[in-house]
TrEMBL record:
Cofactor requirements of the protein: Zn(2+)
UniProt keyword list: Metal-binding, Oxidoreductase, Zinc
Residue ranges annotated for the Enoyl reductase (ER) domain, each copy included: 10-343
Name of the protein this chain belongs to: Zinc-dependent alcohol dehydrogenase family protein
Residue spans crossing the bilayer: none
Database matches in InterPro entries: ADH-like_C (IPR013149), ADH-like_N (IPR013154), ADH_Zn_CS (IPR002328), ER (IPR020843), GroES-like_sf (IPR011032), NAD(P)-bd_dom_sf (IPR036291)
Tagged with keyword Transcription regulation: no
Taxonomic source organism: Streptomyces sindenensis
Length: 347
């Protein structure tokens, strides 16, 4: 089969590799029908994730069709169309029993495209299938569904749920990339008074408005002052960091009201200063987290009923064999306007 293989920092190749096979009775083999590229994949290609060894097939998000199932698999069978989650769950360890699948200690967690071969291929082996793939209704489009493999559960769980968004809240999302836009959309499920999106790119701010943000502001045009003006100087109830750089995290802590919550979603590659000398007296709660994907079944139901606007985030489509071109377009999002790119098997 063909797959995108990490060769060394700065170099990947779409090349022939051996087909995956069943390695454990809990595995399934999935023929990939649709896949996408994550910002984390770009970090891997840059060499920022040293656990990813040369020769690894990248990718951790896919929709496909089960072609083979191990003897212990009970929830799906060959021929079933499924969503492949970015998180695998053994189902037995302490954290899986608490539905904290991202912290799995039984061989799961974030493994696809990280410590085992991933989804940016024609076929993928998925471990712990009973808790790691989800049957899809026929009415749900593959490209729409693939965004529920990672960005929507991440935005919902690590941003909206950890941030405790409630009816009547003022919510600020700093960073209107794919994760931030999914946070805007899923915040709307809780009827906040307003959602404010902050970014440097006008196209992304426009996308945020189309997904329900009542106000938008460029990051270089005093977003803190806008939040103050809209809240009578109080600050936002919930502020989500969806960029992953020290400056935006500190901006978030300055925009939150006393007693408010800062939910960090962004993946940080450098230390960020935590100004406890200012935050402690204001009763600020700061949360972090890796997605667990425990919300995926609920989000799939919302998608099937037209309640999640996932299709609006896909700006570019390619066939699987155009993987390297898709990476180039996604990596130059400022120039190309890419939000999410989707790749599909030849029809």
């Amino acid at each position: 089969m063909k797959a995108l293989v990490f060769q060394e920092p700065g170099r990947t190749t779409w090349k022939d590799v051996p087909d995956p096979g069943i390695g454990d009775a809990s595995d399934v083999i999935v023929r990939v029908d649709a896949v996408t590229i994550c910002g984390t994949d770009l970090h891997i290609v840059k060499g920022d994730v040293p656990e990813v060894a040369p020769g690894r097939v990248l990718g951790h998000e896919a929709v496909g069709t089960v072609v083979e199932a191990g003897g212990d698999v009970r929830t799906v069978r060959p021929g079933d169309r499924v969503l492949v989650s970015c998180i695998s769950a053994c189902g037995r360890c302490r954290f899986c029993r608490e539905a904290r699948y991202g912290q799995c200690r039984g061989g799961g967690g974030w493994v696809l495209g990280h410590t085992i071969d991933g989804t940016q291929a024609e076929y993928v082996r998925v471990p712990f299938a009973d808790l790691s793939v989800y049957p899809l209704p026929n009415a749900v489009d593959s490209v729409d569904a693939v965004l529920l493999a990672d960005i929507f559960p991440t935005a919902y769980e690590v941003g909206v749920r950890n941030g405790g968004v409630s009816p009547g809240d003022t919510v600020v999302v700093v960073g209107a990339g794919p994760i931030g836009l999914a946070a805007v959309a899923t915040s709307r499920l809780y009827s906040p008074e307003r959602v404010i999106a902050v970014d440097l790119a006008d196209a992304r701010l426009e996308a945020a408005r189309s997904l329900g943000a009542e106000a938008t502001v460029r990051a270089d045009e005093e977003p803190q002052q806008l939040v103050a003006d809209l809240t009578d100087g109080l600050g936002a109830d919930v502020v989500m960091e969806a960029v992953g750089v020290p400056e935006t995290f500190e901006t978030c802590t300055r925009m939150v009201r006393p007693g408010g919550r800062v939910a960090n979603i962004g993946v940080h590659g450098k230390p960020a200063t935590l100004h406890l000398e200012d935050l402690w007296i204001r009763d600020i709660t700061v949360t972090t987290g890796l997605v667990d994907t425990s919300s995926t079944p609920m989000l799939l139901r919302m998608l099937a009923n037209g309640r999640l606007p996932s299709a609006e985030l896909v700006t570019h489509r390619f066939e699987l064999e155009q993987m390297e071109e898709a990476y180039d377009v996604f990596s130059r999002a400022t120039d190309t306007g890419a939000l999410k790119v989707a790749l599909h098997a030849p029809r």
